[in-house]
Amino acid sequence: MWYWWTGLAVGVFFLVVVVYDLVQRKHAILRNFPIIGHFRYLLEMVGPELRQYIVTSNDEERPFSRDQRRWVYASAKKQNSYFGFGSDNEMEQTGNYLILKHAAFPLPSPKAGEPGYDPGYRIPCAKILGGHRQRTKAFRPASVVNISAMSFGSLSGPAVEAMNRGCKLAGCLHNSGEGGIAPYHLHGGELIWQIGTGYFGCRDANGTFNLEKLKDCVSKYPIRAIEIKLSQGAKAGVGGIVPASKVSKEVSQIRGVPVGKDCVSPSTHSAFDGPDSMLDFVERLAQETGLPVGIKSAVGQISFWSELADLMSSSDRAVDFISIDGGEGGSGAAPLAFSDHVALPFKLGFARVYRQFAELGLHENVVFIGAAKLGFPESAMFAFALGCDMIAIAREPMMAIGCIQAQRCHTGHCPTGVATQNRWLMHGLDPTDKAARLANYIVNLRKKILMLSRTCGALHPGLISGQHLEILNGTFGSSTLSELFGYRDDFGMPGITDRQSIESIMLAHQENGLAPIESTSL
User: Fold this and answer.
1) 86-141, pLDDT tens digit by residue?
2) What are the coiled-coil residue ranges (predicted)?
3) Which residue in 185, 186, 191, 174 sits closest to 152, CA to CA?
4) Is the pLDDT score of 262 beyond 50?
5) φ and ψ at residue 226, rounded to 5 degrees
6) What does the H/E/C string look like for 195-250?
7) Is the peptide bond before 63 cis (omega within 30 degrees of 0)?
8) In angstroms, rounded to a whole number, what is the distance separating the alpha carbons of residues 111 and 120?
9) CB neighbours (10 Å) of residue 340?
């Protein structure tokens, strides 16, 4: 008899759904196609997951293809990250296809048990951060690969903790993001403290900048540098955005904003209003803290960069580093029009900014950092050849700690607990386990960067020039990177003194196994 009651219950349920579908007025599809119409919304809801596993080819899915995600996951899990049966890319028929030109006699890569072998594949920065301005706490970063800005609030507490623990294991720097320094940032990894337009962590009751609070934070936390955020690639011009669904009580306390309401940073700074006053602000922070101070920005109108370069060349003021974010970047929520159509892509934007400084002879005095989908060996090499001294990566580390590219960052319902404040979803992310995976990914990325550098005959990726890279145009033609971006022969490289220093460090490492384990202070 039980099956009769079960059938009756199922029938009543479907009858109720049919009545609801026919009566409601919000969805035309449901009114026209009761019950069946629900499948449309179900398929729409799981569309990204279906496309990434069933519909698309290895190179189609965006923002990261299946091949790219597979490489990150394999690297993080210490699995085989090699691919078989040759490339499936149409090299000669694809525009802007990158080729690295190998040397006839490449440099050897030490294996386990051989002199010079370093299991951490550490690559120190070729320049000294804060060296040109002789900052009190200038230092040589131990890793050219570091974690880009992702705030607590945008990411969950366990995710931030996993990132920081992973940075400690890998010996790299962790950018706090503009949301302030949370307890999750304090698990051994050294920090670059990002200060945005909201001044979270160093603001007064009115939301304006407070120097004493900044100095208090610098004295308490392992901060190695300060980054002033002007804009970011995903939403240049609108400030940071944390959707209301992510503004938990803990986030509100750290940021000083109401619970359950969108946390939107102002679109511009109140502490300065142009390049000239910004340089005064930079020098003030550097003098009060002794730390290197730099800026982060996406690239739009070039007049700002031209004026900044002119001011730095004609006065005794300068930023210590410049982080350029591409318009294709973005680890969180953003208005679609901004993420798709505002700010230049990284390669174009970075090259334009770099030329402004190089043409005035300033490129050797500034540490350049690149961001925007650079967490893959070939992309990183492109960035180094353009003139980057370091790269900062965000979404690739998110994948290393579990992100499946579900693209639910803006909803607060990230299924893997990475980009959410939902306690149930967060509880599945183990920071200790994911920290190891992040470190594995960073180490393998550095390993492949070193392999490619040595394949081109260079000891260090910073010694790769635009002549080492060729860009195919899809019609059996090509140009070197230098030709394509209008670089002179000395563009994209550190100065002679820095080149000699980093060559000496890498040679000593190769001959004696002397790996620089920690960032070297001067």
Assistant:
1) 777 778 878 889 999 999 999 988 888 888 889 999 999 999 999 999 999 999 99
2) none
3) 185
4) yes
5) -120, 130
6) ECCCCCCCECCCCCECHHHHHHHHHHCCEEEEEEECCCHHHCCCCCEECHHHCCHH
7) yes
8) 12
9) 11
Q: Is residue 159 within 8 Å of residue 419, measured between CB atoms?
A: yes
How far apart are alpha carbons 298 and 323 in whole angstroms?
Answer: 8
Q: How far is CA 482 from each of CA 38, 385, 395, 485, 486, rounded to the nearest angstrom?
A: 54, 9, 28, 5, 6
Q: What is the mean pLDDT of residues 32-41?
A: 71
Of the candidates 9, 49, 58, 17, which has an alpha carbon nearest to the alpha carbon of residue 34?
A: 17
Query: Residue 326: which of 369, 294, 371, 296 has the closest Cα?
Result: 371
Burial of 479 (0-12, 13-18, 19+ CB in 10 A): middle
Instruction: Name the pairing type of β-strands 97-100 and 469-472.
Output: antiparallel
Question: Using H for helix, E for strand and C for coil, what is the string for 117-173?
Answer: CCCCCCCCCCCCECCCCCCCCCEECCCCEEECCCCECCECHHHHHHHHHHHHHHCCC
pLDDT score at 259: 80
Give the number of C-alpha atoms closer than 13 A to the C-alpha of residue 120, restricted to the C-beta side. 23
**CB distance 251 to 155 below 8 Å:** no
- Reply yes or no on domain 139-231+243-521 having CATH 3.20.20.70: yes
Q: Rounded distance, CA 121 to CA 444, Å? A: 8
**Do 471 and 481 touch, CB atoms closer than 8 A?**
yes
> CA geometry: angle at 182 spanning 134 and 162, to 5°?
95
514-515-521-522 Cα dihedral, nearest 10 degrees:
40
Q: What is the rounded distance in angstroms from the CA atom of residue 346 to the CA atom of residue 354? A: 12
How far apart CA 381 and CA 397 sit, in angstroms, is: 18
Contact call for residues 325 and 371 (beta carbons, < 8 A): yes
Sole residue written with tokens 């003021």: 317
- Domain extent listing, the chain: 1-45, 139-231+243-521
Note the helical H segments in 359-495.
Answer: 377-386, 395-400, 423-426, 431-455, 481-485
What does the alpha-carbon distance between residue 26 and residue 320 come to, in Å, rounded to a whole number? 55
